[in-house]
């Protein structure tokens, strides 16, 4: 989903159980654990009293940059299996890709975490396994930092929190555009003082 006027900028909604799913795969990072806990409770309550079997639910989690809420996820009770916990996003995505590749029809993927994490997981499911984005729900959690790619040197910073920042690759002062590439999972960063070197506007905090 996108917002009017900026067709490429994603809009994220809360995770809700999809009653049409046969398998429910949850993936979270850091504070995204709270969204997964909420979703897991809703799955346990079921749709019209029909809760999925424990074997039809899988949970993947990494603390990322924190906070680590893995212990809270592990206290989910006997109705659902324990979460698989990973030290980083790469490890999580590798295991998730293998799991999804062995899954059958009717998989629903629910992802909660930073924006960089969301789209890294989406790429694993969409490009690696062929799951449609229509079968994926995302909820952004934590600070409103954006993954930004410098259009000049292609360096990506996974967590930019201001409208203007210095590229860690080429050192240019970049303005963070709202244009978003769903294929790459990044926003564009363009040189802000190309016509007037050194004339850099005061950075402002990104609010979404």
Tally of distinct domains = 2
What is the general shape? elongated
**What would CATH call the class of the largest domain?**
Alpha Beta
Helix content: 10-25%
Q: Per CATH, which architecture of the largest domain?
A: 3-Layer(aba) Sandwich
Uncertain regions: pLDDT < 50 for 5+ in a row? Answer: 1-5
Strand order of the largest sheet: 5-4-3-6-7
Total number of beta strands: 12
What would CATH call the homologous superfamily of the largest domain? Answer: Nucleotide-binding domain of ferredoxin-NADP reductase (FNR) module
Largest sheet: 5 strands, parallel
Task: Quote the average pLDDT.
Answer: 89
Strand coverage percent: 25-35%
Structural class: alpha/beta
Radius of gyration, in angstroms, nearest whole number:
19 Å
Can you walk through the features of this model?
The protein has 208 residues and is an alpha/beta fold. The chain folds into 2 domains: 2-140, Nucleotide-binding domain of ferredoxin-NADP reductase (FNR) module (Rossmann fold, 3-Layer(aba) Sandwich); 146-191, no CATH class. 23% of the residues lie in helices and 30% in strands. It is built from 4 helices and 12 strands, in the order βββαβαβαβαββββββ. It has helices at residues 32-45, 70-74, 89-101, 115-129; strands at residues 2-3, 6-10, 23-29, 57-62, 84-86, 107-113, 136-140, 146-150, 156-160, 164-166, 173-181, 186-191. It has a 5-stranded parallel β-sheet with strand order 5-4-3-6-7. α4 (115-129) links the parallel β6 and β7 (136-140). The longest helix is centred in the middle third of the chain and has 15 residues, at 115-129. 36% of the residues are buried.
